[in-house]
Specification:
This protein is of the alpha+beta class and about 625 residues long. The protein folds into three domains: about 190 residues, Heat Shock Protein 90 (2-Layer Sandwich); about 120 residues, Ribosomal Protein S5, domain 2; about 140 residues, Ribosomal Protein S8, Chain: A, domain 1 (2-Layer Sandwich). A hairpin with a 2-residue loop joins β20 and β21. α1 packs across α4. It is elongated and about 90 Å long. The structure holds adenosine-5'-diphosphate and magnesium ion. The site of magnesium ion has 5 residues, from α2. Magnesium ion binds next to α2. One of its GO terms (cellular component) is mismatch repair complex.
Length: about 625
């Protein structure tokens, strides 16, 4: 039998490859917009006709191409963005595969005009069915204009497969939004069938979101900000009350590239757990910056999926950053009774820049750290304040005669400060005004009503955050015991303890001996009493044993929760005025003051309107 294998001609290979890259008009929109961004354009205009089926035109003012580059750009694997395989690990461009223009040219009639700043004339190229028809010098502005006409004109089966104009247009808008959100500094325009749909001048992210989704969106945004070595997180989540049945406004960007990630979605879901109704999807615009070395975006031809090296750490940080921001917002919203109902502030009128007051909270503040030798919790109550709480909330005594910073009127500035003036002296009254109700709740006057705290849960929250920082950052202080305490454990318990030994030492425990039927302890965390230790460790073992290892909860988190629950003051404990006040102020220095570590509410607010209603 004769040999039967032949190499496919280029235009056939390109047509086959095009199937991967170009599924519909929106795929072309994405590739062309990304090329414009990669070319450094500051102005990008997209023109579509008939949902892109007849025409997709992209005009940019980027770097343009030389004549040779322009001709080469339509060949497969022609790219200026990587030179060798190693470059794949330090990508800073959207494109790198060198496939888009070749694929598009294989299945549409393409015209390109491009000019570099240093050239006098532009070059114009026409390609049909993958064949270059003409290349001529013409006059034209710096930048590149590409027109893609009659998509799939040579593959009727694919053309027939396209959905209605409405559906295809929806896909185009999605791609347009994604690129426009990822690059707020770039001016984008979209014209469809002769109508101006979007005109988005260079802006900050908040303005860009508002430009796309409408002025009402401004009021819904809660800013995020967290910087760590592994990842920087920024952007916004929508307030929980705007969560919707459908997955509407959900955007992840990694290094300014839109991506989809079920895993990160889950992290957001966990952050909103218990705050939104079951089945409702919170909205978000989340930007992650990571070292390009630590990601692999090469696993899907349309590049919306991504692999992270530190997936688990990013999950945990994302979740806690969102919870932190939501916590601050929720407390702000519940304390802010004068909150203006004008949901639609006019930005033009807010010319004066509001001062964003700072709360300088010492996150590592450990209420027990200065205690030496003697256990401080003899009565099961919080110890005396070591830090004057006033000093935790500095910079608040100026400039805002309202005494309150309205979260709805955050300035439209690029750096979104998370700090807000929640706890200035006007808000939680400095001199006393707290009392205990039923040895269970603490009532506390605020400017326009009162808050009720659940004392046990409030203390759990305080301890939980302090323990967590001890477990993950600074080792806690210890007190040596005169005689080691011996506790007996069975094999299973000992294995569990062994797993958390390091954490326990970090908490301030020191072990003299670790034998086959138990342990002996020679030093305890400074605030723990000898009589408590057996109960606390027993509870910890039970908790760790019983709790299913939940996704996203680290062992440190679970330890901190269990220990906080064991060590916190209980319902029924009578507290002195000073202790009550300290509890209130330590609570408000927490990252998430409104929830106990297990998610149950810590405080409720009763404003004057509430009282008025009761008395009406
Ligand atoms: P990739 O973006 O993966 O490199 P493309 O097929 O999308 O592959 O583009 C091929 C090359 O053509 C790019 O690497 C770039 O050098 C050039 N190019 C494409 N579009 C533009 C543009 N709008 N402005 C300047 N150069 C462009
Ligand atoms: Mg490209």
């Amino acid at each position: 039998m004769a040999d039967i294998i032949t190499l496919l001609p280029d235009h056939v290979a390109n047509q086959i490859a095009a199937g991967e890259v170009v599924q519909r008009p929106a795929s072309v929109v994405k590739e062309l917009m990304e090329n414009a961004i990669d070319a450094g354009a500051t102005q990008v205009q997209l023109v579509v006709k008939d949902a892109g089926k007849t025409l997709i035109q992209l005009i940019d003012n980027g770097c343009g191409m030389s004549k040779a580059d322009a001709q080469l750009s339509f060949s497969r694997h022609a790219t200026s963005k990587i030179k060798e395989a190693d470059d794949l690990f330090s990508l800073s461009t959207k494109g790198f595969r060198g496939e888009a223009l070749a694929s598009i040219a294989a299945i549409a009639q393409v015209e390109m005009r491009t000019r570099r700043p240093e050239d006098e004339l532009a070059i114009q190229i026409r390609i049909s069915g993958g064949e270059m028809e003409a290349a001529e010098a013409v006059t034209g502005p710096v930048g590149t204009t590409i027109s893609v006409k009659n998509l799939f004109y040579n593959i009727p089966a694919r053309r027939n497969f396209l959905k209605s104009d409405a559906v295809e247009q929806r896909h185009i808008l999605d791609e347009f939004h994604r690129v426009a959100l990822a690059h707020p500094k770039v001016h984008f325009k979209l014209i469809s069938n002769g109508n101006d749909l979007f005109n988005l001048p260079s802006a900050n992210l908040r303005k860009r979101i508002v430009g796309i989704f409408g002025p009402k969106t401004n009021e819904k945004l809660v800013p995020l900000e967290e910087k760590t070595e592994i990842v920087c997180i920024s952007g916004f989540v929508l307030k929980p009350e705007y969560a919707r049945k459908s997955r509407g406004e959900q955007f992840f960007f990694v290094n300014d590239r839109f991506i989809k990630s079920a895993y990160l979605n889950h992290a957001v879901g966990m952050a909103f757990e218990g705050i939104v109704k079951e089945g409702a999807h919170p909205g978000f615009f989340i930007f992650l910056e990571v070292d390009p070395n630590a990601i692999d975006i090469n696993i899907h031809p349309t590049k919306t999926e991504i692999k992270f090296e530190d997936e688990h750490a990013i999950y945990a940080m994302l979740r806690s950053t969102i919870r932190h921001s939501l916590g601050q917002y929720r407390v702000a919203a519940s304390l802010d009774f004068d909150h203006s109902l004008d949901l639609n502030p006019s930005y033009e009128s807010t010319k004066q820049v509001p001062v964003s007051p700072k709360i300088e909270v010492d996150r590592h503040f450990n209420p027990f750290s200065e205690k030496e030798g003697k256990a401080g919790y003899s009565s099961g109550k919080p110890p005396k304040p070591e830090v004057k709480w006033e000093s935790l909330y500095s910079g608040t005594a100026i400039s805002d005669p309202q005494g309150f910073h309205d979260p709805a009127e955050f300035p439209l500035e690029e750096s979104e400060e998370l700090e807000s003036r929640l706890f200035d002296q006007d808000t939680v009254e400095s001199k006393q005004e707290t009392f205990q109700v039923g040895a269970k709740y603490i009532a506390c006057r605020i400017r326009n009503g009162m808050i009720m705290l659940h004392q046990a849960r409030a203390h759990q929250r305080i301890l939980y955050e302090s323990y967590l920082s001890r477990l993950t950052m600074e080792r806690g202080g210890s007190q040596q015991l005169l005689f080691p305490v011996k506790i007996e454990y069975d094999n299973k318990q000992l294995t569990l303890l062994e797993d958390i030994r390091e954490g326990l030492e970090q908490m301030g425990f020191e072990f003299a001996d670790w034998h086959s039927d138990g342990i002996s302890i020679q030093a305890l965390p400074a605030e723990m009493e000898e009589v408590q230790v057996e109960r606390v460790l027993g509870q910890l073992i039970d908790d760790l044993d019983q709790e299913l290892p939940e996704l996203g909860y680290s062992i440190n988190d679970r330890m901190a929760r269990s220990l906080a629950a064991s060590m916190a003051i209980r319902t029924g404990t009578i507290l002195e005025a000073e202790e009550r006040e300290q509890l209130v102020h330590e609570l408000f220095a927490c990252k998430e003051p409104d929830r106990a570590p297990d998610g149950r509410p810590v405080l409720i607010t009763l404003d004057n309107k509430f009282f008025d209603k009761q008395f009406s």
